């Protein structure tokens, strides 16, 4: 006789909601197994003399739920085969789970995977889900938008304020605390949520409407507890989602949107992208995280606008940009998302570069045939591009061997610039000035100093010192135009000491 497992749902806990068909199957079962006896329907089984065996002991012998579910599945498969070998009536066993077998029941999913492999027939019968009572007792319609999430694995990335959200596996204050922290990533502390316990079960049902920050203050959590976060269209919540940003940019570029935004092209926005990137860099030197967040937003807007322009042209959209980036990050980090190893940053960089080379080959590009310096973007700021060009050339041995040689080159280039100045040729002066700056970048590289950072620090000092001069002059009731160079130089020296 072929082994046979019949899975039934015990419903939400209200005896009146148990279907007649399920009750008949329970009464006729020769072998009845319960995932847990911590369910209101067990009282009805006991009153009617129904014998059963539960798997609660397995919960006590394992630390992780996944281990529990695997152990229960393995036992059920073994018991089904044993029942068939013993030639029990119909050769079947009945496995009862709380609620509905296909709602939040991991052991059922495992049995659906494993039974065909084990040659065991599997039959699933229904049962009232706790969701039926949630819709009824909490009073919301799932057609408005609904999602069911697992509280033991809740993530910010799965939350959507436009959907009714029901969270299960909130069985004690510790799990409630974890859920609260995840929800607070999106929702304000005082946002109202609902905690329901044993919904629809007479004498046991409890419903609490509380602010989010009080979620783990409740003490009556149990196996039949859930959290409901009602859907909301509050602007402050929608504005915390990427989808809202995409929607706003789409509207701005639409015929009914902003005339300025509609007129923009990749070329017209070119300088904006660069300026916004530099404004972000500027915030790194400040102690103002709010300003940093604002400037990062401005930079993100530039990305969104460029993606929207291409979406209108039909080439790609921002979702393609995100998908491409995600795939690249996964592909280039095999030491994180794959089987490769990287014990330090240098090894991780080796992985990254090897994968980049392989990506080029798949596109029909032979990396060995590309010019060595081709990978340095032309649009980089001058000092940064010079630094990267020199670094690439040095990697293959085209470099000075000693610092003294580099200093000699700087001095030589300065002399050539002086000669060009004397010649009064603007073309020569520009060329020699460029050579001098290039040699100074080389010196910075030998000193292991980033020339852009050094230049940025020099600019900062000049800005602050000149600001001191301006401030002191104004304190004297004058402006800079009324101040002589000698006085300004004296104030400059004061600023240096400060």
What report would you give on this structure?
The protein is an alpha/beta fold. The chain has helices at 20-28, 41-47, 56-60, 65-85, 106-118, 130-139, 173-183, 235-238, 242-252, 259-263, 270-283, 289-313, 318-332, 334-337, 345-362, 382-395, 403-423, 426-446, 451-475, 485-497; strands at 4-9, 32-34, 53-54, 92-97, 121-124, 146-150, 164-168, 192-197, 206-211, 225-229. The radius of gyration is 35 Å and the shape is elongated. Helices cover 53% and strands 10% of the residues. It is built from 20 helices and ten strands. The strands form two sheets. A five-stranded parallel sheet has the order 3-2-4-1-5, sandwiched between helices. A five-stranded mixed sheet has the order 6-7-10-8-9, with no helix packed on it. Helix 17 packs antiparallel against helix 18 (426-446) and helix 19 packs across helix 20 (485-497).
Could you name the key traits of this structure?
498 residues, 5-stranded parallel sheet, 20 helices, alpha/beta, 5-stranded mixed sheet
């Amino acid at each position: 006789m072929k082994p046979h497992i019949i899975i039934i749902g015990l419903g939400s806990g209200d005896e009146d909601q148990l279907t007649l068909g399920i009750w008949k199957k329970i009464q006729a079962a020769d072998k009845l197994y319960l995932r847990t006896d911590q369910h209101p329907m067990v009282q009805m089984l006991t009153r009617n003399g129904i014998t059963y065996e539960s798997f609660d002991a397995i919960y006590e012998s394992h630390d992780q739920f996944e281990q529990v579910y695997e152990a229960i599945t393995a036992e059920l498969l073994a018991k089904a085969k044993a029942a068939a070998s013993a030639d029990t009536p119909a050769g079947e066993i009945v496995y009862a789970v709380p609620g509905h077998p296909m709602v939040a029941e991991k052991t059922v999913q495992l049995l659906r995977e494993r039974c065909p492999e084990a040659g065991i027939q599997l039959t699933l019968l229904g049962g009232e889900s706790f969701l039926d009572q949630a819709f009824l007792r909490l009073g919301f319609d799932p057609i408005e938008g609904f999602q069911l999430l697992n509280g033991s694995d809740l993530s910010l990335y799965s939350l959507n304020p436009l959907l009714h959200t029901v969270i299960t596996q909130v069985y004690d204050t510790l799990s409630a605390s974890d859920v609260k922290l995840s929800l607070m990533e999106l929702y304000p502390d005082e946002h109202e949520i609902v905690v329901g316990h044993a919904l629809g079960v007479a004498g046991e049902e409890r419903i609490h409407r509380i602010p989010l920050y009080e979620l783990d203050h409740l003490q009556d959590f149990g196996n039949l507890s859930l959290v409901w976060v009602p859907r909301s269209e509050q602007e402050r919540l929608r504005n915390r989602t990427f989808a809202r940003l995409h929607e706003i940019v789409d509207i701005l570029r639409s015929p009914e949107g902003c005339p300025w935004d509609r007129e923009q092209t990749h070329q017209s926005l070119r300088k904006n992208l660069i300026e916004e990137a530099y404004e972000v860099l500027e915030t790194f030197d400040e102690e103002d995280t709010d300003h940093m967040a604002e400037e990062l937003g401005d930079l993100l807007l530039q990305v969104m606008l460029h993606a929207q322009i291409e979406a209108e042209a039909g080439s790609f959209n921002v979702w393609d940009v995100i998908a491409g980036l995600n795939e690249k990050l996964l592909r280039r980090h095999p030491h994180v998302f794959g089987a490769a190893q990287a014990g330090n940053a240098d090894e991780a960089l080796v992985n990254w570069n090897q994968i980049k080379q392989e990506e080029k080959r798949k596109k029909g590009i032979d990396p060995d045939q590309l010019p060595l310096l081709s990978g340095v973007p032309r649009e980089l700021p001058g000092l940064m591009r010079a630094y990267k060009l020199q670094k690439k050339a040095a990697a293959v041995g085209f470099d000075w061997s000693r610092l003294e040689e580099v200093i000699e080159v700087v001095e030589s280039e300065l002399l050539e610039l002086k000669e060009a100045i004397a010649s009064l040729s603007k073309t020569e002066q520009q060329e020699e000035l460029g050579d001098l700056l290039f040699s100074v970048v080389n010196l910075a590289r030998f000193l292991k100093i980033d020339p852009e950072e050094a230049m940025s620090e020099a600019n900062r000092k000049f800005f602050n010192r000149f600001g001191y001069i301006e401030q002191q002059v104004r304190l004297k009731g004058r402006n800079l135009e009324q101040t002589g160079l000698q006085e300004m130089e004296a104030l400059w020296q004061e600023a240096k000491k400060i």
